[in-house]
Amino acid sequence: xxxxxxxxxxxxxxxxxxxxxxxxxxxxxxxxxxxxxxxxxxxxxxxxxxxxxxxxxxxxxxxxxxxxxxxxxxxxxxxxxxxxxxxxxxxxxxxxxxxxxxxxxxxxxxxxxx
Length: 114
Hints:
The chain is α+β, with helices and mostly antiparallel strands. Helices cover 18% and strands 45% of the residues.
């Protein structure tokens, strides 16, 4: 007997499990000095869900979010303060889990300029 679970329910399950206890891998540009992985996870939208237990032993949820940082655009002068510009970034998140309550899901986050 098999039970079919919707992709949205699988995504919600993996997100909630990742929030409880996940192995966290975060890769950001060096300008992002204080990454906020849990905030990114809270604001992310689900892109795709992969679940194929015939060939793989895990489910993968791909999510997307946004962030950014400020970088100096012009140095200060005697009469003008330094100027900064906002650099938008895309956040790609993925959660891998084998649905085994004894194992931790893996939360992988990559941030790159948009």
